[in-house]
Design a protein that fits this description.
Length: about 260
């Protein structure tokens, strides 16, 4: 008697190769339902293989650094340069050479659920993680570019182990013994991508907390960016204590309330 489709579906979940005897049996099964399960299995396997290829490609710069004798390689990225409110947050992440978690990519390419899942995995598997946070006040005092560099430096300095090579997204930092700045580094380096996820999740959770403290601007959804809901909140309520007063249109509204 042929196995039920539900049982076949469950058994296929533990199959890792088309060479598996059970998969070969499925190929001989003429039922349409089984053919659909086989097609689904092949699609999922293709996705997994593509992610493995992506992971290996994103280890290129880390592998190059190790080949030159560097041992502690940190990826650094930031989030929050563009918002009208809240801090800029940077993360530094040191991954082991055998890091094998697929799907780690630029945080902007991932949905919230996937970011949260990878965030937990990265914290579990990383050799070290450092966070740097610079408030709206620092941003207003020194400008967003300098505040971002300060946050990145703080993230590196807070690592439990000192890196001897740093991979940095976009901007030269001049804070490490050796460093390489990569344009769109969060899609080229697994370490930078991991840092982008840690920084993004950290800041998003901070903004969700700020939303409870300062309601009416939609911080939990817009993360401080200038969405319609945020701008409407500014028009109705004026600025709140975490707004960046040197950023337009916050600056204009703030000056308007003072005049």
């Amino acid at each position: 008697m042929a196995e039920k489709l539900a049982i076949i579906k469950e058994r296929l979940q533990s199959v890792t190769s088309e060479a598996d005897p059970f998969f070969q049996e499925c190929l001989l099964d003429e039922r349409k339902g089984v053919a659909k399960l086989v097609a689904t299995f092949r699609r999922e396997q293709a996705k997994k293989e593509a992610l493995l290829v992506q992971l290996e490609a994103m280890k290129y710069y880390e592998n190059e650094a190790r080949a030159k004798g560097f041992q502690v390689i940190a990826g650094i990225d930031e989030v929050g340069r563009g918002p009208l409110a809240g801090p800029v947050v940077a993360a530094a992440v040191v991954l082991p050479a055998d890091f094998d978690v697929v799907g780690v990519n630029d945080s902007k390419q991932l949905n919230e659920a996937k970011r949260d899942q990878l965030y937990d995995t990265i914290l579990e598997k990383a050799l070290a993680v450092g966070i740097g946070v610079k408030s709206h006040e620092v941003i207003d005092n020194v400008n967003i570019y300098e505040a971002t560099k300060l946050a990145m430096a703080e993230a590196i300095d807070s690592l439990a182990i000192k890196p001897d090579f740093c991979l940095i997204d976009a901007m030269p930092l001049k804070h490490c013994e050796q460093e390489l700045s990569l344009i769109k580094g969060d899609s080229k380096s697994v370490s930078i991508a991991a840092a982008s996820i840690v920084a993004k999740v950290t800041r998003d959770r901070m903004m969700a907390s700020f939303d409870e403290e300062f309601p009416g601007y939609g911080f939990a959804k817009n993360m401080g960016y200038g969405t319609k809901a945020h701008l409407d909140g500014l028009e109705k309520q004026g600025v709140c204590p975490i707004h960046r007063l040197t950023f337009a249109p916050v600056k204009n509204i703030f000056l308007g309330t003072k005049s």
